[in-house]
C-alpha cells in the first residue's frame, strides 16, 4: 500500500503527507486505522524517520491524524473542512467524481428550490430576482467577466440554500459550492456560458415567484445538467475549449 519515495527529491515530509492523504482519499486508510511505526514507515517509503515524524506533525495540525503518545498515530475522523479538502482531491484525480458531485447537487438543489417555493417569504424571492436581473443586465452589456460571474453564481446558489429554511442544508452547500470553484470560473469563461447560466437563474427565479415548486425543481435540474456538461468539457479537453462558444448558446 505504501510506495517508496525518491530520496533525492526535496520536501520529503511533504511527499509523505501527500501519499498518506491520497490513501485516505481512496479509502485505503480509514478513520481509526493505526499507521505503521515511524521506523517501519520510513523503511517502506525509503525516507528518514525525521521525514516521517515531520509528516505526522503536519497531518496532526491539519486534523488528519491523532498522535497518541505510547500508542501510535491513528487516522482521525474527518471534520467538514477535511471532508471538503478530500472531495477536492477526488475531483482533481478522477473525472467520475465530478459527475458524482453533480448527482449530489441535483438531489440537494432541486429539493432546495422546492423548499424555497414553499417556505421563503416573497420579499426574499423578490430580492433574489432583483439581483439576478442586475446580473443579467451586466451580461447583456458585456460587463460580466468570468470571475464576477463565478462569484454571482455561488452567491445565487448559496442564497437559495439559506432561504430554504434548512440550516444544515445551507452548511453543506457552503462546502460543496467551493469544490468546483476553479472549474466553474473556467467554464464561465466560454463565450456565452455566463449569460446562459444567468438566463437559467432567471427561469428558476420566475418559477419561484409563481410559487411553482416543481417547475423550479425542473429548471434547477436543467441548469445543473447544463453546467455539468460545460465543466466536464473543460476537464476532458484540459481547458482547450476556453475561448470557444458554448454549444448550447444561441447564435
Lay out the secondary structure.
Blueprint: H1 12-25, H2 38-45, H3 49-61, E1 65-68, E2 72-75, H4 80-93, H5 95-119, H6 122-140, H7 146-163, H8 167-179, H9 181-188, H10 193-209, H11 213-237
Antiparallel strand pairs: 1-2
Helix pairs in contact: 1-3, 1-4, 2-3, 4-5, 4-8, 5-7, 5-10, 5-11, 6-7, 6-10, 7-8, 7-9, 7-10, 9-11, 10-11
Any overview of this molecule?
It is a single chain. This protein is mainly alpha-helical and 251 residues long. The protein has two domains: 12-77, Orthogonal Bundle (Arc Repressor Mutant, subunit A); 82-237, Up-down Bundle (Four Helix Bundle (Hemerythrin (Met), subunit A)). 69% of the residues lie in helices and 3% in strands. Helix 5 (95-119) packs antiparallel against helix 11 (213-237). It is elongated, with a radius of gyration of 22 Å. Keywords: DNA-binding, Transcription, Transcription regulation. Residues 10-78 form the HTH gntR-type domain. It holds the Pfam family GntR. This is Transcription regulator HTH, GntR.
Amino acid at each position: 500500500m505504501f510506495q517508496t519515495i525518491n530520496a533525492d527529491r526535496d520536501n520529503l515530509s511533504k511527499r509523505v503527507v501527500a501519499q498518506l492523504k491520497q490513501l485516505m482519499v481512496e479509502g485505503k486508510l480509514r478513520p481509526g486505522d493505526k499507521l505503521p511505526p515511524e521506523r517501519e514507515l520510513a523503511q517502506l517509503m525509503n525516507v528518514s524517520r525525521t521525514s516521517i515524524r515531520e509528516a505526522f506533525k503536519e497531518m496532526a495540525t491539519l486534523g488528519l491524524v491523532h498522535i497518541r503518545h505510547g500508542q501510535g498515530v491513528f487516522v482521525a475522523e474527518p471534520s467538514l473542512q477535511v471532508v471538503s479538502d478530500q472531495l477536492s482531491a477526488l475531483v482533481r484525480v478522477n473525472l467520475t467524481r465530478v459527475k458524482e458531485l453533480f448527482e449530489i447537487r441535483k438531489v440537494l438543489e432541486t429539493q432546495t428550490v422546492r423548499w424555497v417555493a414553499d417556505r421563503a417569504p416573497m420579499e426574499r424571492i423578490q430580492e433574489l430576482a432583483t439581483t439576478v436581473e442586475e446580473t443579467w443586465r451586466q451580461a447583456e452589456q458585456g460587463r460580466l467577466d468570468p470571475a464576477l460571474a463565478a462569484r454571482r453564481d455561488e452567491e445565487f446558489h448559496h442564497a437559495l440554500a439559506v432561504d430554504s429554511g434548512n440550516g444544515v442544508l445551507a452548511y453543506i452547500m457552503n462546502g460543496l459550492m467551493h469544490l468546483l470553484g476553479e472549474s466553474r470560473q473556467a467554464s464561465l469563461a466560454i463565450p456565452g456560458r455566463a449569460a446562459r447560466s444567468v438566463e437559467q437563474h432567471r427561469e428558476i427565479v420566475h418559477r419561484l415567484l409563481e410559487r411553482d415548486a416543481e417547475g423550479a425543481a425542473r429548471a434547477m435540474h436543467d441548469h445543473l445538467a447544463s453546467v455539468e456538461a460545460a465543466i466536464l468539457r473543460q476537464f476532458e479537453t484540459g481547458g482547450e475549449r476556453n475561448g470557444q462558444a458554448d454549444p448550447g448558446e444561441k447564435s
